[in-house]
Amino acid sequence: MRIAEHFAREGLSRRGILLAGAAAGVLTACGARTGRAFLSSDTHPADYPTVTAVDEMARLLRERTDGRLDIKTYAGGQLGSERDTLEITVFGGLDMNRVNLAPLNAIEPVTTIPALPFLFRSNEHMRRALDSSIGDEILASLTKHGLIGLCFYDSGDRNFYNTKRPIYTPADMKGMKIRVPNSDLYVSMIKALGADATPMSIAEVYQALVQGVIDGAENNWPSYESGRHFEVASYYSLSHHVIAPEVLVMSKRRWDKLDKADQERVRQAAKDSVPFMRANWDAAVDAARTKLLAAGVKVNEIADPVAFAAAMRPVWDKYVVSDDQKRLVKQIEAMAEEG
Ligand code: GTR
Questions:
Q1: Which residue's CA lies nearest to atom 1 of ligand 1?
Q2: Which pTM was predicted?
Q3: What is the pLDDT of residue 10?
Q4: Which residue puts its alpha carbon closest to atom 10 of ligand 1?
Q5: What is the predicted pLDDT for the residue at 337?
């Protein structure tokens, strides 16, 4: 399905078009000032590793072009949710966007693969797979939807947190209302565990926890911390159920206006920001964990990861259907043991 059609079906395109207009206004103002700064969006705050990685990419671009190419990032979700800003990016109202793979799942089926529960054994396994031709193939799959996939960033492992009790077994989740990103794959994962899934954007999660609209959510340590979700939902249960990456995309409309040499500069600077991101990511996970343990968050390992993996396995059958998806899963699994 084309991305515009998908968003139209979701009833979002009118709002998206309005937002695109607003973003295009910012873009024009920005362009007038700097000549060529790319306007980029991120849902996370300015010091979050995805944002500082794009800052590093901007620094590399400036250095390599005497300031001719640059990026201006609007952090903290100022320009809207990932789903809305993705739509704007496709329309060309935004040049770049750093998002999770989740909002792309409904648009491009191969993006569901790295988000499958218990596919990657570790962060290293994920990095190895996405550094290979598998990663290039998933990035390239976005082109037909009006997006140029520039690179993947880390997002660590996602774990469950809630306001009620520690989760040791899938049975502990029965009936809990768990927030998920806007992705059918995530909805299916939560249902498979016997809980109720509530899709919403991450910006709404804190309030929803406070008001009891949801009992919990799932995310990595840095997001659990930066969204202040730990203040309300103090049980953090280490399920490690998803190790999906973040992705940095560029609007194809903007990309097509660059000459080949500048396209190559943009792609290279994005790739060169990845090691910087990874080092910062590891440090951010450690810092968030230390801070939250000191703040009194109650952390537990789940009793039996196999029980969670088994309960979520039917999700694979539902989402791994095409030959390409099956091949990618096989290739990724074959890389699990490589050192
Ligand atoms: C975070 C990710 C965000 C967003 C968020 C979510 O880990 O960095 O891009 O997808 O999760 O759960 O919505």
A1: 223
A2: 0.92
A3: 45
A4: 100
A5: 81
Q: Is 43 in the pocket of ligand 1 (CB under 6 A)?
A: yes
DSSP 295-327: TT-EEEE-S-HHHHHHHHHHHHHHH--SHHHHH
Quick one: which of 27, 155, 144, 8 has its CA closest to 96? 27
Torsion of CA 236, 85, 150, 131, to 10 degrees: 20
Q: Where are the domains of the chain?
A: 3-108+147-153+246-281, 158-243+289-334
For 162, the 3-state DSSP assignment is: strand
Pairwise CA distance, residues 235 & 11, whole Å: 35
What pLDDT was estimated at residue 13? 44
Give dist(CA 8, CA 16) in Å, integer. Answer: 9
In CATH, the number for domain 158-243+289-334 is: 3.40.190.170
Tell me, what's the pLDDT at 266? 98
**3-108+147-153+246-281 and 158-243+289-334, same CATH topology:** yes
59's enclosing H/E stretch is helix 49-65
> Cβ(100)–Cβ(155) under 8 Å?
yes
Write out residues in the chain with pLDDT < 50, as ranges. 1, 3-4, 6-14, 16-18, 28-34
| Protein residue with least CA distance to atom 5, ligand 1 | 202
What pLDDT was estimated at residue 31? Answer: 43
Give distance in angstroms: CA of 2 to centre of ligand 1: 23
Is there an atom of ligand 1 within 6 Å of 41 CB? no
The CATH architecture to which 3-108+147-153+246-281 belongs is: 3-Layer(aba) Sandwich (3.40)
CB of 220 sitting under 6 A from ligand 1 = yes
Ligand 1 midpoint to CA 100 (Å)? 6
